[in-house]
């Protein structure tokens, strides 16, 4: 019989020990999950799936009965004349509130204190009948730098008569254009990508609003506004 030798001590290793080591290397021990534990795990997974399906089934009718509104250009009901009256005390002038009937719809009207630009201004945004946008800005503190910012550095390309007044026309050449009018102590700028006929309609209403408001009146509270 051949004896095996221990590699560390040089002494013969017991025959039983040699067989045990060889058996361990050839047959690794595999963990076995008891049948009861496996059954409980499967039951938990199935229960979670059933609960998820029931939750979706309960929530789905609510979603179907309350469909999301279509995004077709939300038009909030802004009372420009009312907001303009509230802004008049701090503006130092009567902000324009063009009457265009239901043709143009305002989606915002606000007084901007001009913290960043240094020019306080009355701002109104209009959605046009043809689905475009025209922004109105009015101030009594216009300066060349502010004017260029508002018109996106567009050069003067001509003029256009609206409301009996000659408006300066500026065009960026990229679809954006502006009409500028200095009248009755304030400067009004209309800017956007709308067509010129829509600009002219709104500009006409602006002049009528300016004429009806009369001369600029400066209130004590507004005199301190930069």
Provide an overview of this structure:
It is a single chain. The chain has a 7-stranded antiparallel β-sheet with strand order 3-4-5-9-8-7-6. The protein has helices spanning 15-26, 35-65, 80-91, 144-150, 196-213, 220-223; strands at residues 4-5, 12-13, 105-112, 121-127, 133-139, 156-162, 165-171, 177-183, 186-192. It has 6 helices and 9 strands, in the order ββαααβββαββββαα. The chain has 2 domains: 11-65; 80-223, Phosphorylase Kinase, domain 1 (2-Layer Sandwich). It is of the alpha+beta class. The protein is elongated.
Number of domains: 2
Strand order of the largest sheet: 3-4-5-9-8-7-6
H/E topology pattern: EEHHHEEEHEEEEHH
Terminal CA distance: 111 Å
Tally of DSSP helical segments: 6
User: Which CATH first-tier class of the largest domain would you pick?
Assistant: Alpha Beta
Number of strands: 9
The second-level CATH architecture of the largest domain is: 2-Layer Sandwich
Main beta sheet strand tally, sense and closure: 7 strands, antiparallel
- Mean pLDDT reading: 81
Q: Low-confidence parts lasting 5 or more residues at pLDDT below 50? A: 69-74, 218-226
Percent of residues in beta strands?
Answer: 15-25%
Task: Find the structural class using helix and strand composition.
Answer: alpha+beta
CATH topology of the largest domain, anyone?
A: Phosphorylase Kinase, domain 1
Q: Rg, please?
A: 39 Å
Task: Please identify which CATH superfamily of the largest domain we are dealing with.
Answer: MucB/RseB, C-terminal domain
Binned, the helix content reads 25-40%
| Shape label | elongated
- The quaternary organization reads as single chain
């Amino acid at each position: 019989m051949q004896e095996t030798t221990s590699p560390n001590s040089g002494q013969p290793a017991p025959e039983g020990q040699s067989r045990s080591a060889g058996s361990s290397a050839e047959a690794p021990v595999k963990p076995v999950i008891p049948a009861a534990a496996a059954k409980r795990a499967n039951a938990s997974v199935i229960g979670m799936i059933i609960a998820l399906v029931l939750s979706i089934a309960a929530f789905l009718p609510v979603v179907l009965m309350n469909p999301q509104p279509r995004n077709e250009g939300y038009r909030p009901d802004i009372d420009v004349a009312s907001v303009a009256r509230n802004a008049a005390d701090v503006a130092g002038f009567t902000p324009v509130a063009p009457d265009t009937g239901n043709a143009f719809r305002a989606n915002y009207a606000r007084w901007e204190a001009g913290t960043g630009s240094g020019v306080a201004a009355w701002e109104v945004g209009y959605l046009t009948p043809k689905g475009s946008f025209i922004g109105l800005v009015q101030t009594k503190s216009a300066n060349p730098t502010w004017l260029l910012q508002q018109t996106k550095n567009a050069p003067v390309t001509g003029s256009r008569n609206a409301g009996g007044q000659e408006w300066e026309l500026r065009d960026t050449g990229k679809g954006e254009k502006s009409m500028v009018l200095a009248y009755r102590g304030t400067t009004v700028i209309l800017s956007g990508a709308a067509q010129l006929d829509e600009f002219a309609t709104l500009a006409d209403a602006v002049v009528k609003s300016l004429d009806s408001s009369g001369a600029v009146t400066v209130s004590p509270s507004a005199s301190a506004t930069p």
